[in-house]
Amino acid sequence: MSPYGRTGQLIRLNLRRDRFRILMWIILLAALMTSVAWKFEGIYGTQSEINAIKGTLASPGIVAMFGAFSFTGKVTTAEIFANEMLLFMALIQVVMNLALSVHATRYEEDLGITELVRAHAVGTDAPLAAAAIELVIVNGFLGILYSLGLTAANMPGATIEGNWLIGLGLANTGLLFGILGLLTAQLADHSSSATGLAYSLFGLSYLARMITDVQHPRLTWWSPLGWVEKLAPYNHPNWTPIWLSLLLALVLAELAVLANNHRDLGAGAITTRPGRRNASVFLRGPISLIWRRQRNVIIGWIVGIIIFGIAYGTVFNTIGDILKTNPTMQQVFGTAMVHEANHKVLLSFTSLLAIVMAAVAVIPGMQLILKLHSDETRGWLEALYARPLSRTRLLFSYVGTAFVTSTLAYVGGLAGIVVMGDASLKHVQDGISASEFWQGVWAQLPEIWVFLALSVLLIGCWPRLKALSWFYLALGFISVYMGSLLKLPDWVKNLAPSGWMPRVPQHDVNWTTFSWMVALAIVLVIIGWIGYRRRDLHMS
Amino acid sequence: MTNPVLQINHLQKKFGHFQALKDITFDVRAGEVFGFIGPNGAGKSTTIRVLLGIIRASGGTATIFGQNVWSDSVSIHQRLAYVPGDVYLWPNLTGGEIIDLLLKMNGTAHSAKTDDLIKKFGLDPTKKARTYSKGNRQKVALIAAFSQDADFYIFDEPTSGLDPLNERIFQEAVLDLKARGKAVLLSSHILSEVERMCDRIGIIREGQIIETGSLAEMRHLTRTMVTVTLGDDFDVTTLAGTHGVAAGHQPHEWQFSVEDAQLSAVMNTLAQHQVIALQSTPPTLEDLFMHYYTGKE
Fold first, then answer.
1. Which residues are listed as membrane-spanning (chain A) (predicted)?
2. Residue among A157, A66, A76 at smallest CA distance from A485
3. Which residues of A fall within a CB distance of 8 Å from B102?
């Protein structure tokens, strides 16, 4: 039997197993892309609208978030679209691919399913190959849908070649990171560390592209995530990124196969060491248990977000220096005005980043809260419930850790931006002041807490609906992040708590909004707590 | 007589429209091992989860130490030890860490007894739980339970992954608990184990307790198997009070079962036909089990 025996059957099995999640992702992503393209002529149809946004997109702050693109000659609606959407869609597509790839390989192995499959006449590399082909199918199908959707939307300035370049470019970027997930799944010894490893590399490519975009766009070629920016689909179509990502994906796939052949099933290339014979004095209750189990994840998130903040901070000196883009300003307005303008630019940049930081900081907390339910269904809590340990204490151990983690992550991330940013400036008065920093902290914390409180409510009362937490967070993030560029109506932004508070530190904190948002979070947690005390626990 | 440690009265549990427990009534007293047997899906684990306060009963009452299992679960658990059937352990902790943590949460600590149990069961406590086999995961839970000084022990199919040697260590430990006057509820599939250790047995079928009592009491409800070799041509099929009569492998050898009430009459008749060899086997728990489940023999 060849090492790839029965791959075909496994692919069918995988597609059937994942049909629901694949379908959700494809519908969501294709709908997002096509509907934005459809609406785009209405948003940026006229030349004056295009010229206005063109300046915004060229500003370093937006470049840091959306990528550097060069405009030459008369700019069309389609070019603006590509500029705003390409990197953003690539990010979502990478998240989808990492979820699918680790789930299809390492997660199945952790559950013991791979062992069952491999006991049959199935090749040694077949499960890996099946997962890789599943990724090719999903990304390919999605890419084709993008291209067709863009063609149907028919934006002014769009070309057939550009449409296909976008579709295939995104598909290849997604595939590349999916294959990266397959590789980390072979290196790590269980699914969560495989995911962690893959996300670290993803974060690294993001940071690399962000810093190079702001300073030397030419160097962005060194980040695989930067390749989508180089497609330039509607001005100078460039197919090189597609061949590059395919080539790198092939290399990574080969490495994954090599790693798979050199390890035992159930073990990683990085081996597990023996651990302590006894528990430390510190490990004595539910909170220390969560810490002991999740400390790598918690520390990883907090440190990761702080590094992210610092990386954004390093571009302050480029962004906050209007003279670089507009050298005549000083002569016209005088030094004081220039500092004032620089400060304004940095404030609005920090406001936008604060939203991103807040959304990212919610993720580890939300994971911890939802973990209370997955631990429950996996039977890990059964041993705890048989102890003299009330449900109230157990719930608040998870919830408390989650709130602290998210809060620290957010404050740390924002501090990273502000401290590093101010340090990089030539004139400190251009930077963000301490009081503005604290305004930024108080403005976003209620939003973070409301998101987490909603998860507590779902876990306590309707645990089956827990996936809604992620949808709601995604909705909140997209509506605010893309809101102003897509000119979304206010009611869309107000659907999620991320839109309830005015942009701070650009504006002041609205303490009335602050108070009722905190009150709302408390009420949601209390209802969730009551539900959790009353309901049956689901054991496997 | 003192109050029973565990008292269950007409316990019911519904999951949506599915009635998982219809009518469960039994009690467990101090100093006894109560065997809880029944096929997969009969409701053993559901009953135990109600007792632990993990799920809430839809009807009936259940008390442990005279306290309500749902509302007073925390104070009950202070004096209770439990080993689940499928032991799931936190994958990135070692066995040693888990044992210590579980003990600490009950307010006790790792003792010489714990070390002794780890040695007896042959567990390597430095391994991460992720790498343990099913039997080793069960050992972790068993060691934690036996090192605890509880008054009521619940074991839900605790030996399904253990080898015969460890099974024996388990049985010794349970008998030791009994000698110290503790109450034990043992749910098991291994009928020989139940037969050897349990003072009383409850049989559950489709969410209902269909029989409780000691093994001796239950045996009266069924028939004794008899194998006899006679000295003449007597046809046992003509004998009243016998069931399932079959000719044996040897000439004049017969096998049949007989109800306890008919036993002496049957023996008298057989004695007149020159009994050469006679073997009578009381029903095993397995026979009882089959009797209740298939409604035959």
1. 20-40, 52-73, 85-106, 126-152, 164-183, 242-259, 298-319, 345-370, 395-421, 441-462, 469-489, 509-532
2. A66
3. 383, 387
